[in-house]
Amino acid sequence: MQYFEDIQPGAVREIGATTLTEEAIIAFAKQFDPQPFHIDPVAAKNSAFGGIIASGWHTAATVMRLIVDSAIELEASLGSPGFDDLAWLKPVRPGDTIRARMTCIDKTPSRSRPGIGSARFLIETFNQNDELVMRFTSIGIMRFRIPAKH
Amino acid sequence: MKYLEDFSVGQVMEFPPRTVSEDEIIAFARDYDPQPFHLDKEAAKQSLFGGLCASGWHTAGMMMRMLVDHMIGKYASMGSPGIDQLRWVKPVFPGDTLHLRGEVLEVKFSQSKPDRGVITTRYEMTNQTGETVLTMQGKGMYARRPAQG
Amino acid sequence: MGSMTSLTAADGHRLGAYVAEPKGAPKGGVVVIQEIFGVNGHIKAVTDGFAADGYYAVAPALFDRVQPNVDLGYSPDDIAKGKDLRGKMVWETVLQDCAVALALASKAGRVGTTGYCFGGGVTWKMANSLPGLAGSVGYYGGPWGELKAEAPKAPCLLHFGALDKMIPTSLADEMKALHPSITTHVYDADHGFNCDQRATYNATAAVIARRRTLAFFEALL
Fold first, then answer.
1. Does the N terminus or the C terminus of chain A have fewer Cβ atoms within 10 A?
2. Which of C196, C201, C208 sits opposite B36 (nearest CB)?
3. Interface contact B88-A80, CB threshold 8 A
4. How far apart are CA A69 and CA A14, in angstroms?
5. Measured between beta carbons, which residues in chain A are less than 8 angstroms from residue B78?
6. What's the CATH code of the domain at B101?
């Protein structure tokens, strides 16, 4: 998400990859999603998942970090009003490397606030076997390019 | 242990409130959403939010924790296939107290897998002044009650 | 919180330096180069900040060549004193002082440097003249005259304020055109935007620039 003028509907960006460790998975889940298959290796082994899997919210938060690190122009971003159609398609397991791809769907200038617009992005997340593990449509709000003051 | 059958359409769930601290807002933002308005009080004052506020993903995480502690954890949860829609309606500031309410919209028994089903629930999170801060419509998968005998 | 130590430059001059150590093993070293106000509270805070982020950080007192222990604020009087002191600096001895700070910081591994205002010019010069530097960052440094043309030998990251009356934004474009390998960022902020003791402090720009500086060091050190 760069400045509004820079955003191109249809443009696709790879936004990086990261590996989720079991330690990180359990730590996140203990705080935000303490279900047994996210925090207890023994219980997880006996569950339908066969072992610890990451909370879907951890996968999403991790992808958010990738977005902030590589795809947002920090001066331009005004946050997000939300997202639509999030699907957790496949479990993410300790040691999995997830990578994310961002495709701009459309952009719309704000009718009520000059110098501000919004854009929708399809965020797809794949594991190291190129399987789609998570997908959602993110909405971003951003400034128009700041005019040079000199 | 409760199962899919223990949900009913129209069922309303209220959750005990929890207060958000500045430290936890910054700690989450540092790891997962390091935008200036989530990290730094002065930068946040300059922003449209007017003050340091929680990452929306942090608010979602706090909501999930409330759900697991008081509802999901009591049921035979099989995870979630996803979220239909989530909206961050108003910023969540340090010291805000979050209240959560959910209403079951649909209970669907799986046709292909007779041991499970999916419920759709609409959630609304409000702050201490009654303003809506977050709305979400999401799905949860639960096991059916095992057959007796 | 760090402490003051004493370093000896190649020509025998003894200078003070503020050193801040990280908890645990350092990720590398960072040399922090002062503005025209000496190694004051702000520069010490910046140095402590890099230590908090895991770096062994050293801020040499460059003005010790002319006047020991310069510690100025940001009043018009301080600005006048600082400009006067800066005017007495000589590149040869400034670089010797930076070199000994660099040598100390290199005990922690690869070393980067970051400088503010006058210090931004120094870190640019260091990138051209001092071996053993993994990366150089400068905040609102310039304008530099002939310094502009000197090609850096280490990766450089330069932060500029669009509202800075002393340093036109055209300098950022010029620098980038002269040296395509460097990275420049221009913020909607004024000179001194990183310093929370100055009226021109801009927290949003400071937070974003710092994030970029840390990412730069993370990649190179």
1. C
2. C208
3. yes
4. 12
5. 48
6. 3.10.129.10
Can you tell me the distance from the alpha carbon of C51 to that of C46, in angstroms, rounded to the nearest whole number?
9
Using an 8 Å Cβ cutoff, are C36 and C84 in contact?
A: no
| Residue C149 at interface with chain B, using a CB cutoff of 8 Å | no
User: What is chain C's pLDDT, residue by residue, as a tens digit (221 residues)?
Assistant: 899 999 999 999 999 999 999 999 999 999 999 999 999 999 999 999 999 999 999 999 999 999 999 999 999 999 999 999 999 999 999 999 999 999 999 999 999 999 999 999 999 999 999 999 999 999 999 778 888 999 999 999 999 999 999 888 888 999 999 999 999 999 999 999 999 999 999 999 999 999 999 999 999 99
Q: How close B11 comes to chain A (CA, Å)?
A: 22
Evaluate whether B83 touches A60 at the Cβ level (below 8 Å).
no
* Count of domains forming chain B: 1
Question: Which of A23, A30, A31 is the best mutation test for B, with the most CBs of B within 10 A?
Answer: A31
* CA–CA min distance A129, chain C (Å): 27
Q: Which of B33, B72, B142 to substitute to test the interface with A, most A CBs within 10 Å? A: B33
Any B CB within 8 A of A70 CB: no
- Is B111 contained in some domain? yes
Tell me the sheet residues that pair with A98. A18
The verdict on A31 touching B (C-beta cutoff 8 Å) is yes
- Alpha helices (H) along B1-149: 22-32, 36-39, 41-46, 56-70
Write down all domains in chain A, each with its CATH number in brackets.
4-143 (3.10.129.10)
CB atoms under 10 Å from CB of A5, counted, come to: 14
Tell me the nearest-neighbour CA distance from B31 into chain A, angstroms. 7
The confidence band for A1, taking pLDDT boundaries of 50, 70 and 90, is low
Asked if the model's pLDDT at residue A150 lies above 70, the reply is no
Residue B50 lies in a domain: yes
Q: How far apart are the first and last CA of chain B?
A: 17
**Residue B4 to residue B118: CA distance in whole angstroms:** 8
ipTM of the complex: 0.96
Q: What secondary structure letter does DSSP report for A46? A: T
Is B96 a domain residue? yes
Q: Residue B125 falls within a domain, yes or no?
A: yes
* Whole-model pTM over 0.80: yes
Q: Which of A74, A75, A148 has its CB closest to that of C169?
A: A148
One-letter amino acid for residue B121 of the chain:
T
Which token pair is C214?
């840390």
Q: Compare CB distances from A148 to C162, C204, C208 and report the shortest one's residue.
A: C162
Cα(C218)–Cα(C155) distance, integer angstroms: 13
Question: Which positions of C are annotated as active-site residues?
Answer: 117, 164, 191
Whether the Cβ atoms of residue B141 and residue B149 lie closer than 8 Å to each other: no
Contact with chain A for residue B51, Cβ under 8 A: no
pLDDT category, B149, cuts 50, 70, 90?
low
Determine the structural domain holding residue B11 and report its residue range.
4-143
